[in-house]
């Protein structure tokens, strides 16, 4: 139950937990020289240790201590949640590598509960659910972004979630009508190369980017990537179409480089291929987790499209055979254990307020996402696509 | 399939009347292939005329069309330029370690081209691993790998095996006494190759080139990684934005282009009723070039195989410490891959025999239509074909939906032309007088087919099976849509690691994919060996 707005406190708590678990040696070895970033390296090392063997210790489960690593987490534990029983078909747009361990963990808590997962990209699963129609075997859809969830809700393929499930997260991280709920968050961010730029060189206003001469030939984007398209959609909504068109043209005048995905961008920035880019925050953390000395850091813009905070989340489908079981499974994704898992394994922001993020990141309440932007509005990509095409970005 | 010929008309080999059994079988196969197209048309028409016209006439359409045409033409040419000489070297000459090279140069087919593209970008990108190696020598930037040239390079490296395998099968079943005859008529070696060998292998090379061309046209991953704007990239964008119907409509555009290419190919194919026995004798001695000749062969295989493997392994080494538990490798993945691929190869060959046989032996409007139709499934992007079967499976075949039966069915529809193309080229090279002789000696038409024709087309049969097997090993989009829950193959495992950013962990399944495919190729080649050597 800690609202950490103080990274120092998080760090102390980590060290205390690490000492208790006897891994202080690891933390001690890696902390020197990385002090500037607060929780930085020490926590990431814990991440690696956690992924490696943390699940082997059954005694930690339900104790408020993370079963995936060594820290204490707040929130509602799985033990305090309704039991799961039966078989559930989950279409997951989130990769097996990212959530397979978590799904297995939840299954292991109950003797008679089985998940039949089908993994694919969120977009293809939406196509699949649409094509299957009322014959769909799917009970729960788990998505990497609000857009896919909003699309299914809009096409009438979802069921309203129970109020007690919706209340786990602040209202800005769920559908206003309660058709879907966010389970973890990703912030739009600006990866920059610290050999070329310092934090103060990065404008706090995304609209100023095309006029930043230092970015000429040094910046990259991903026009085919869904998170980028959601960002442009947000810009359209916040700044209007004309300003967005001007921004897209301006970026191309800067000689922006096109990449296939944002992990590629983050690596390219770390390699110095480009010096700055547009990417979801966790890609940067993922590069840093492997190359902690890479000259790569994260900047955020303020109150604009460049700072939108999107969520991965879940919904219960209209074809679900047991909607109570389905919504209780979604509830488990909001448990203390699951929220800690997201922070740890994917570097995402937990959405349940009692659980802190992990990595060289500011806490969620220090971010400045634009106010009055409804995430499900970001599903409206059609206009964005035509705009990207008209300006030649796509 | 041999039993089909029991009912065959006596005049079967004269080319007039179609034998009933094979015709019914071929018609059934064609109907199965056309099934997904029905769904495509249904969804495509649902888009509405106005938006369809707007979509198809927007300015980028022309640019994308030109880009796609350039890519297909250049890649196909390069595939023939690489595949045919490699086939000649490994079949007709005394190149050392020919069996090893045969497998090595076939294997690039199992590397998913997006993995290849990703590896090449990592290695040869402006500031990739290769540049970092050269940095001490003062190399600061490598030439641009993105764009048309890079895309052609990658796609050629991963699709030339289509030409190689079909050309190889044809060279193996070629009657080399003709070459000896030409030589005695004082043709030099080049002239002999041009006037005797080329006409004989032309149908096979055309079949292989067609497979390469259509693969290139329908490939999603490579152009998007190589930043080259083609049809599939546009379709990909639509899918990514939940515009399923628009994506399907655009796929129909792709089908139309495919139909055009098929028409073009049947024009180019020209007079192809070449016939030969199966007599094959002395190899061409390379003399002092025997060992040096291995260099280009090794270079092609090396570039296509070593670069991606090396890149993946280097990532694995670099990220070993942060290994993800969910991505631990299991041998059952390999078993799953081999099982479905073997099933798909077997069914595709059995289904391909009547189609190929009718088209090669009889020709005519209907058999040719059956043969051309078999290519349609191949032309539809895998994800669209997968969705079509999701529709039919979930609505009309619930018991087999999300089971291996429907998955194998999807593979067969998708890769049927690979067995048909290879088989057809082999049927063409069988002298009709041979089964006729068997008939005069008292064999039934089925018996003649079984004991005379089938052994003679064995190289084509196993070549076709090898093609289907290898491409099924790497098939991804339809697999993701149609697999049973929890069914993991080598490629879905590679994809899982790749898609989640754990590139290094794609290394182990990728190596296993190469190893298992190589081993399977060895088995397939041994089967082929009982016959024409």
Can you tell me about this structure?
The complex is a heterodimer of chains A (394) and B (533). Chain A has 394 residues and is an alpha/beta fold. Chain A folds into three domains: 7-60, no CATH class; 81-184 and 311-340, D-Maltodextrin-Binding Protein, domain 2 (3-Layer(aba) Sandwich); 186-308 and 378-390, D-Maltodextrin-Binding Protein, domain 2 (3-Layer(aba) Sandwich). Chain A has 14 helices and twelve strands. In chain A, helix 2 (24-30) packs across helix 3. The model of chain A is unreliable at 1-63 (pLDDT under 50). In chain B, helix 19 (433-440) packs across helix 20. Chain B has 23 helices and no strands. Chain B has 533 residues and is mostly helical. Chains A and B meet through helix 3, helix 4, strand 2, helix 5 and helix 6 of A and helix 11, helix 17, helix 21 and helix 22 of B.
Short description:
The complex is a heterodimer of chains A (394) and B (533). With 394 residues, chain A is an alpha/beta fold.
Q: Stretches of chain B where pLDDT falls below 50 for ≥5 residues?
A: 1-15
Helical content of chain B stands at over 70%
Number of strands of chain B: 0
| Percentage of residues in strands of chain B | under 5%
> What is the CATH C-level name of the largest domain in chain A?
Alpha Beta
Q: Which fold name fills CATH's third level, the topology of the largest domain in chain A?
A: D-Maltodextrin-Binding Protein, domain 2
CATH homolog superfamily of the largest domain in chain A: Periplasmic binding protein-like II
Distance between the termini of chain B: 25 Å
> What kind of oligomer do you see?
heterodimer
Beta strand % of chain A: 5-15%
First-to-last CA distance of chain A: 46 Å
SS summary, helix count of chain B: 23
In N-to-C order, the SSE pattern of chain A is HHHEHEHEHEHEEHHEHEEHEEHHEH
Helix-and-strand structural type of chain A:
alpha/beta
The CATH architecture of chain B = Orthogonal Bundle
| Approximate helicity band of chain A | 25-40%
Please, what is the CATH homologous superfamily of chain B? MetI-like
CATH class of chain B: Mainly Alpha
Main interface by residue count: A-B, 55 and 50 residues
Number of strands of chain A: 12
């Amino acid at each position: 139950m800690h609202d950490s707005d103080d990274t120092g406190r998080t760090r102390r708590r980590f060290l205390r937990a690490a000492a208790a678990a006897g891994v202080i040696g690891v933390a001690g070895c890696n902390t020197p020289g990385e002090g500037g970033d607060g929780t930085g390296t020490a926590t990431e090392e814990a991440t690696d240790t956690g992924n490696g063997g943390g699940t082997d210790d059954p005694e930690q489960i339900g104790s408020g201590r993370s079963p995936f690593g060594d820290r204490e987490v707040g929130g509602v534990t799985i033990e305090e949640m309704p039991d799961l029983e039966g078989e559930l078909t989950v279409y997951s747009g989130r990769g097996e590598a990212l959530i397979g361990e978590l799904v297995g963990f939840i299954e292991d808590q109950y003797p008679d509960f089985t998940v039949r997962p089908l993994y694919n990209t969120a977009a293809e699963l939406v196509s699949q659910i649409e094509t299957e129609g009322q014959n769909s075997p799917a009970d729960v859809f788990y998505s990497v972004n609000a857009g896919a969830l909003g699309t299914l809700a809009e096409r009438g393929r979802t069921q309203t979630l129970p109020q007690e499930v919706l209340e786990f997260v602040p209202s800005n991280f769920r559908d206003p009508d309660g058709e879907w709920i966010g389970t973890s968050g990703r912030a739009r961010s600006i990866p920059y190369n610290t050999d070329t730029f310092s934090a103060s060189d990065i404008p706090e206003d995304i609209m100023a980017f095309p006029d930043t001469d230092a970015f000429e030939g040094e910046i990259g984007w991903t026009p085919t990537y869904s998170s980028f398209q959601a960002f442009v959609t947000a810009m359209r909504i916040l700044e209007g179409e004309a300003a967005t068109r001007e921004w897209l043209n301006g970026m191309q005048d800067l000689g922006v480089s096109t990449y296939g995905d944002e992990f590629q961008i983050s690596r390219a920035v770390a390699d110095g291929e480009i010096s700055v880019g547009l990417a979801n925050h966790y890609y940067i953390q993922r590069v840093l987790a492997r190359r902690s000395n890479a000259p790569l850091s994260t900047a955020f813009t303020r109150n604009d499209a460049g700072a939108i905070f999107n969520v991965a989340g879940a919904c219960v489908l209209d074809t679900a055979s047991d909607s109570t079981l389905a919504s209780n499974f979604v509830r488990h994704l909001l448990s203390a254990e699951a929220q800690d898992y997201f922070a740890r394994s994917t570097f995402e922001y937990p959405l349940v307020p009692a659980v802190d993020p992990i990595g060289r990141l500011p806490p969620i309440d220090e971010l400045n996402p634009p106010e009055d932007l409804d995430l499900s509005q970001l599903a409206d990509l059609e206009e964005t696509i035509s705009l990207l095409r008209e300006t030649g970005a796509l | 399939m041999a039993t089909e010929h029991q009912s065959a008309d006596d005049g079967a080999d004269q080319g007039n009347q179609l034998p009933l059994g094979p015709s019914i079988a071929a018609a059934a196969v064609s109907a199965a292939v056309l099934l997904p197209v029905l769904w495509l048309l249904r969804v495509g028409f649902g888009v509405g005329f106005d938006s369809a016209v707007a979509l198809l006439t927007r300015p980028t359409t022309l640019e994308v069309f030109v880009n796609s045409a350039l890519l297909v033409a250049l890649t196909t040419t390069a595939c023939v330029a690489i595949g045919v000489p490699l086939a000649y070297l490994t079949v007709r000459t005394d190149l050392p370690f020919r069996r090893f090279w045969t497998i090595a140069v076939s294997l690039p087919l199992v590397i998913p081209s997006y993995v290849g593209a990703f590896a090449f970008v990592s290695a040869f990108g402006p500031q990739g691993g290769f540049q970092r190696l050269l940095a001490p020598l003062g190399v600061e930037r490598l030439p641009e790998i993105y764009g048309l040239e890079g895309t052609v390079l990658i796609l050629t490296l991963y699709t030339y095996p289509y030409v190689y395998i079909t050309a190889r099968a044809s060279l193996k079943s070629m009657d080399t006494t003709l070459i000896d005859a030409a030589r005695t008529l004082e043709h030099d070696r080049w002239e002999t190759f041009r006037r005797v060998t080329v006409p004989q292998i032309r149908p096979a090379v055309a079949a292989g080139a067609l497979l390469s061309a259509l693969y290139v046209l329908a490939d999603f991953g490579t152009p998007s990684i190589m930043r080259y704007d083609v049809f599939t990239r546009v379709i990909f964008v639509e899918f990514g934005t939940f515009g399923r119907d628009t994506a399907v409509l655009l796929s129909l555009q792709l089908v139309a282009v495919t139909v055009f290419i098929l028409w073009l190919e049947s024009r180019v194919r020209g007079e192809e009723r070449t016939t030969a026995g199966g007599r094959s004798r002395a190899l061409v001695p390379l003399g002092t070039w025997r060992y040096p000749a291995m260099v280009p062969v090794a270079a092609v295989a090396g570039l296509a195989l070593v670069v991606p493997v090396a890149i993946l392994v280097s990532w694995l080494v670099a990220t070993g410490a942060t290994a993800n538990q969910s991505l631990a490798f299991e041998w059952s993945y390999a078993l799953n891959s081999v099982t479905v691929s073997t099933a798909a190869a077997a069914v595709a060959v059995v289904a391909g025999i009547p189609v190929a046989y009718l088209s090669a032996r009889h020709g005519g409007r209907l058999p040719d239509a059956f043969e051309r139709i078999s290519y349609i499934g191949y032309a539809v992007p895998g994800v669209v074909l997968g969705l079509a079967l999701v529709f039919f499976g979930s609505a009309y075949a619930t018991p087999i939906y999300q089971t291996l039966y429907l998955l194998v069915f999807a593979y067969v529809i998708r890769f049927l032309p690979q067995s048909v193309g290879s088989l057809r080229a082999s049927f063409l090279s069988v002298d009709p007088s041979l089964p006729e002789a068997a008939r005069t000696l008292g064999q039934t038409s089925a018996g003649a087919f079984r004991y005379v024709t089938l052994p003679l087309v064995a190289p084509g049969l196993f070549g076709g099976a090898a093609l289907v097997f290898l491409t099924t090993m790497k098939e991804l989009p339809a697999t993701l849509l149609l697999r049973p829950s929890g069914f993991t193959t080598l490629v879905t495992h590679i994809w899982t690691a790749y898609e989640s950013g754990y590139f290094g962990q794609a290394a182990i399944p990728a190596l296993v994919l190469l190893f298992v495919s190589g081993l399977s190729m060895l088995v397939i080649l041994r089967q082929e060996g009982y016959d024409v050597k």
